[in-house]
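Input chain follows. Return structure tokens only.
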Amino acid sequence: MKTDTSINQMPLLELDLLKTIVAIAETGNFSAAASVVHRTPSAVSMQVKRLEEMLGRPVFNRDSRSVQLTAEGGLLLEHGRRVLALNKEIMTRFMSPEVSGVVRLGATDDVAERHLPDLLRRFAQIQCCVTVDVVVDSSSILEKRIRKGDMDLVLVTCNPYKPMAKDVELIHREKLVWAGVQNGVAFEQNPLPISVWEEGCSWRNAGLDSLKKISKEYRVAFMSAHISGQRAAILADLAVAPVPASACVNGLVDLTGKQGLPALQDYGLGMIVHSEPTSSVAAAAQHLRDSFSIMAA
């Protein structure tokens, strides 16, 4: 039987190269990807160069600010994820997992919408035999539930400038800003229309405290427990709101300083872990620590 020598001579893509491409695409830059794949940024650059030479075409468009996939890079990412998933499936069939079980994870709406999808996808790649069940609720309710033993792990908002309970571990902090719609006029109104949530919300407290310090008049024009609701109010130019700086995307802009809008304090994200965590809970907690550490880098 005659064989096609051209197929036999075709180079094989290494899994490490594919893992690096996926890491760059998901983190948005070479430095963050280097932390994910445990290599130096220069080693990651060399991997990309070697892959592009092998394929004979660029995988990324690079400039001083960002890294974007080319059309060919997008196709490589799609197939690369399939190859890595298949590799994981094969290895899972032959290897006994070191960690398995169920993790009951609680998170606030903001964390669930903006961070959890990526965090859980990466965790599933690392710990394929751990199931994560998610509950989305307010910080106050999540704190009560984990202390009753109903949850294994929760992420709650907190004020990093105030003493926290002993079981709350600060794993992330971020600047809060006054967000408004691009080219909007809500921030020019007096009293200032704002969108906030209930008492106890760290974003609300930071926003109201800053306005009271400068004696700026305001009115609560919109209330929503969900960041999607707040975003809708902002995009409709009904109000401005205190939100994390990273949430200012897709039409939302930072208005801090305009029309006298005062600077805001950072907000914190705290993690509370069950007092007697299982190995799967401990693994999930460490994954969250590592992931938010990479975000801050």
